[in-house]
Amino acid sequence: MKPFYLTAALTVLLSACALLPQSAAQTTLTADEGQSPTQTAPAPKVTEIALTPIGKPKPPEGIPVGAVIIYRRSGGIAGLDEQWEIFDDGRMVAKNGAVAQAAPAEVSALLAELARIGFFDLQPQPLPLDLCCDRFTYELTAVSGQRAQTYTAVDAQEGVPSAFWQALELVQAFLQAHSQ
């Protein structure tokens, strides 16, 4: 019977130690001869630091550093899922591994045109609940300086601002011209 009580007591004691909150974790220092009595110091804290290349602001969550436009088209009868990332240095990388190149000045001009037509000022709206009929879903993200905008819409969705469709056409034409 003693082994049972010993096991139960040990389990309770070890469980209590595991329940200490993270902030209560401490490091104890003991004194050797000639030193001050035992001291308790708070456990060190871990701090995450986001590093980006010099001169580039940290991009919004989920956007690779240097990417200024992300185009995504998904759905349709074939269930496509295509994505292109356009970088400020002119690189274009597709989700399927395809790579293309444009001049950095052309990428800057595309971003300026997106700003001119009002893409960065669009107010997001919810997608329809019924995404039926094999329609495509489009998601366009653009980053320019400290401004970032992501807008998502579905083919034939009512109420989508014309600035989104214009922006989508501009990006699609850009990709088609440079990824051939």
Structure description:
This protein has 3 helices and 8 strands, in the order αββββββαββα. With 180 residues, it is α+β, with helices and mostly antiparallel strands. The strands form 2 sheets. The protein has a 6-stranded antiparallel β-sheet, covered by helices on one side. A two-stranded antiparallel sheet has the order 1-2. β3 and β4 form a beta hairpin. The chain is globular and about 40 Å long.
Order of helix and strand elements from N to C terminus: HEEEEEEHEEH
Regions with pLDDT < 50 over 5+ consecutive residues? 8-31, 36-54
Number of strands: 8
Number of H- or I-type helical stretches: 3
Helix % is: 25-40%
How can the largest sheet be summarized?
6 strands, antiparallel
Give the termini separation: 80 Å
- Read across the widest sheet, the strand sequence of neighbours is 6-5-4-3-7-8
- Compute the average pLDDT: 76
Strand composition percent: 25-35%
Question: How would you describe the shape?
Answer: globular
Structural class: alpha+beta
Specify Rg, calculated over alpha carbons: 28 Å
